[in-house]
Specification:
alpha/beta; D-Maltodextrin-Binding Protein, domain 2; 2 domains; nine-stranded mixed sheet; 11 strands; 38% helix; globular
């Protein structure tokens, strides 16, 4: 009998905790997932009783989850598409978008690749298939091996819009499920090229990017992304199904605080300026 009472007590405690409203779910961008996890770890340390569950899957997956009501926060490395906004409207949802960090999409090369820089037109040619051999851009006489992201990725969509001018990727592009996989592939392929968030680059080198052949190439760094001189820069977003209040407002404002932004920089992301972070706070 005592055992039954004890089990009931544990059940009541657990269900009370589960329904206490202190669980926050975050889902979406693989570019942002490391930052989301790091923020969650630190926030839970400071807010005992709050449980934060963070998962990736891609920006498109996160947006779908937000609109289906299966996540509290969507992490996205792109804005919502027009059809996604229309779907939200049809469900009576008014998505609330907040920039939480900045990012540069770096162009990854193998460390032994002699190429140091590429223009936007060269990158477009490489990824649309118009340029197929490294010798066409000053490199060795070898076919270029293309690595990219899957089409549910915000990075895939942003790169296609910004670099490919919305043209299709070459059919021979090998699509991989996350930036870490792209980095790993290029690190092990002397003739490979890839792209992805600046924070993920380990064991590869960057190509400087320039507007045209006559311009000076710019490397992706915290400084060049912050001041906008790096050409493939973007905002990283959190989406909510309405203007956040309560526990979601509290967490968002903490992420936008000096402490939260310092964490983003410490793991390779680009923090917002103090002015932008302050402007994004929910009053």
């Amino acid at each position: 009998m005592k055992k039954v009472i004890l089990l009931l007590a544990v059940f009541v405690m657990m269900t009370g905790y589960i329904f206490s409203g202190q669980t926050i779910t975050i889902k979406g961008s693989d570019t942002l997932v490391r930052l989301g996890q790091r923020w969650a770890e630190e926030y839970m340390k400071q807010n005992q009783g709050t449980v934060i569950q963070v998962s990736g899957g891609g920006s498109g997956t996160g947006i779908a989850a937000l609109l289906n009501g299966t996540t509290d926060i969507c992490e996205a490395s792109r804005d919502m598409k027009e059809k996604e906004y229309k779907l939200a409207e049809s469900k009576g949802i008014k998505p609330y978008r907040v920039s939480v960090a900045l990012d540069g999409i770096a162009v990854f090369l193998h460390e032994n690749n002699p190429i140091q820089e590429l223009s936007l037109s060269q990158l477009k040619g490489i990824y649309t298939g118009a340029i197929v051999n490294w010798k066409e851009v000053g490199g060795p006489d070898h076919i270029i091996i293309l690595y990219g992201r899957e089409n549910n990725s915000g990075t895939y969509a942003f790169f296609k819009k910004r670099v490919l001018n919305k043209e299709d990727y070459a059919d021979r592009t090998q699509t991989l499920p996350g930036t870490a996989a792209v980095v790993n592939a290029v690190a092990n392929d002397q003739y490979g090229i890839g792209y992805g968030g600046l924070a993920w680059a380990k064991g590869v080198k960057f190509a400087g990017v320039k507007e045209s052949d006559n311009d000076k190439a710019v490397m992706p760094t915290v400084e060049t992304v912050s001041d906008g001189t790096y050409l493939i820069s973007r905002d990283l977003y959190w989406f909510f199904n309405c203007k956040p209040t309560g526990k979601l407002k509290k967490m968002l404002n903490w992420c936008l605080s000096d402490e939260g932004q310092k964490i983003s920089e410490s793991i390779g992301y680009v923090p917002l300026s103090k002015e932008q972070a302050s402007a994004n706070l929910i009053k």
